[in-house]
Structure to design on (73 residues):
């Protein structure tokens, strides 16, 4: 999924964007990580039947990303 598709299909509310931005800053993640987290959060939201990505979806996606980073080391 490229940036234009992410923009179209991974809509978030302001609270979710702020949560993701804070996590990216605190954890020192890249812009690529931002996009990957959004894609995972979109999948989580889809599985829950949600039309938009909400803060709990972002939080869960960040947890998966954090686990992924621990495994890579």
């Amino acid at each position: 999924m490229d940036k234009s598709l992410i923009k179209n299909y991974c809509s978030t509310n302001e609270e979710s964007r702020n949560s993701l931005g804070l996590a990216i800053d605190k954890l020192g993640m890249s812009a690529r990580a931002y996009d990957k987290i959004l894609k995972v959060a979109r999948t989580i939201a889809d599985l829950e039947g949600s039309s938009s990505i909400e803060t709990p979806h972002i939080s869960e996606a960040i947890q998966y990303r954090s686990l992924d980073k621990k495994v890579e080391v």
Summary: Residues 3-72 form a domain with the Helicase, Ruva Protein; domain 3 fold (CATH 1.10.8.60). The chain has one domain: 3-72. Residues 20 and 26 are 10 Å apart (CA to CA).
